[in-house]
Amino acid sequence: MTIPAGRDIITPRRLPKITIDREKCTVPFLCKKCLQICPTAVFNVLSVTARAERLKEMDPRIDGNYQLTILRRDKCMVCNKCLEVCPVDAIEIEVP
Amino acid sequence: MVSARKFPKITIDQERCTVPFLCKKCLQICPTAIFSVHGVKEERLKELDPRIDGSYVLSAQRLDKCTVCNRCLDVCPVDAIKIQVP
Amino acid sequence: MCWYCEQYGDPEIGDGLWYLNPYNHARNMYKLRMPDEAFKGAEVAREGRQTDISIADLIDAIDEGDQGKYTRVQRALQANMGEGGGGQVVPLEDSDKILELCSPLGLMACHCRKGVRAIEERSELEMTCMGMGVGMLKWERWPENYKGGVNFLNIEEAKEWNHKMDKKGFVHILMLFGAPFIGGFCQCDYTDCYAIRRAVDFGVGPIKSHYVAEVDYDLCNGCGMCAQRCQFGSLKIEITTQKAYIDQFTCFGCGLCETGCSKGAIKLLDRTRIPALAEVWR
Amino acid sequence: MCYLCEEYGAGGLWYLNPENYARNMYTLRLPDGAPKSAAGAETSGDIAERAKGIVDLVVAMEQGDRDGYETIKGQMNENRRQRGTEGQVVSLEDGDKILELCSPVGLMACVCRKGARAIDERNELEYTCMGMGVGMLKWERWPERYKGGVTFVSIEEAKEWNHRMDKRGFVHLLMLAGAPYIGGFCQCDYPDCSAIRRVVDFGSVGSFGGIGTLKGHQVAQVDYDGCNGCGICAQRCQFGALKFEVTSGKANIDQFVCYGCGLCHTGCPRGAIKLLDRTSLPALVEVW
User: Fold this and answer.
1) Fold adopted by A22-94
2) For FRET with D56, which of C120, C266, C278, D244 sits at 20 to 30 Å CA-CA?
3) Looking at the predicted complex, does its ipTM rise above 0.85?
């Protein structure tokens, strides 16, 4: 038997859709502007494992070594700060 | 999930606990504020006297928050509270 | 009892706490870190195991308004975490004891902060994570995972670092790399640490510690230092009484309020001795 | 838009619409056919009936009855809405504006603290609640409800009191007594205020949909440049929405959990927390 608690019950709600144009956003770990401005830490940056080499650290300056992903779009309140700071206009937020 | 558990059962002996709004010890010691005190019959133009037996009644509403710390038992001067751990 | 203690605790040693059982810090643990059949053990944890799910599915369930899916994914994630990728919050005192048992210990860059905020920790002064156990000796093979290298510490230095992190306000979490092998001793805060955020928002991730915090109303002067330090939103200042209020059902027992209280008004109690909390691990 | 604004806002904020403070509002306070109590019980005098809703919820939790839990919660919200006895959190500034519109206003003992902690507020220095509107003029008929009497105050005195309560750290909350008739201007904290407790304890993932109280029209936002991480704001949040993000050394507000009470905003010595209009953030527009 389980006890419903606040974090076990959802209130249905349409979440914003966030898309990242990877053609434009090529060096997110170097740029990191959106990652650090986001009040609710929606973004995540990952190293592209396919490019990882044993015994080698990945260079943030090289295109495509890191990828920006959306981790927590449930926390996005569309404040648009990321759009403002993105130097290459790679982020798009679609409000449902 | 919080966990699977049964809540403690709290019974208040109303015969003994007669003036809860005057005594108020359990209400103020409870770390999770699970108790509640209410006037029994609010009448127009009359204020209830906390000193009169039965003008207020104590109830334990938020059993889900009771951790059975037993502080209410310790402070109750008339031993009116019983907590049954399931 | 917590699942890890049931599996890996020794009632004779360290009050039966799994992480104080020296056997769990033995060198050969490393080989077991990807659990084989024998180590998968507890059927409870295996039930509902599903590998192709993630937090993203929980979020989709919210978007779709599908309570059933949400609950299914939540349970499966909890089961997965129990098996190997989980962890447990520990208070400062216990973590000091763990540092005495485990070797080697090395400071390293935090993986979560790197991912969530693109923070690069390049030197031992910046590093906010600690790798544990013999696996650390192979760090040089994976420079990307250990950006900035690893700075090995002795027990005293490790404790000093631990206390420094506690003072800053970080929650101490043991991160399992295949139970009971402890791979990381994390210093976490809300939003920037994956584990805490999962636990607070969805009830998925590391389990609560063996303790819960309790306020001594006689000593508490309502200064509010503790409220600044709680990362779980379970400590509030009850203005009416001018005392700290702790919701022990959501308290993770990290002990930050205890170590931050200048009046010594907050104590850690043994969770298992409180009937209503004895089985509250999530 | 919040449903109160939709129905009573006349294009703006419902509580800044002077029409809602007209004297005749008082007679409207209980709509015909509305349930007699929040729990839907026939009599509101009986203690067991009065607490029925919450007690039923607790039983459903114990039995792990999720559907039952949701049904009871839904019913409680529906009853409150029909009776027009919901509430809404307001910021200090909006509270001040309301005090200018409403008359009379009188300090009184808080009913919640009386029930939850048996606190007996006997004079104006102790009072932590404010009654509003012409209904207050009849207070003498109900001495038990207005233990210690009522101290009527002028607009300036009321504002001063409001600011003092804000300084202490109380959340300002409008309590409806038959929408849109505002019966009380509450000063609340967790867990002694039953309104705050109902929303904090019975919400859902990300703290939505508690019982009986709507979030305010604002949400707080941290200005990372201004914040020096002193942590005072974290002491003042009653909703667990504001945490001190140790990594960045800044305050971190979960705006989905935030009720927009503005206590962090008024407590910040550096002015680093701003209140934004809820409607300016698309994802929050429907989060009440």
Assistant:
1) Alpha-Beta Plaits (3.30.70)
2) C278
3) no
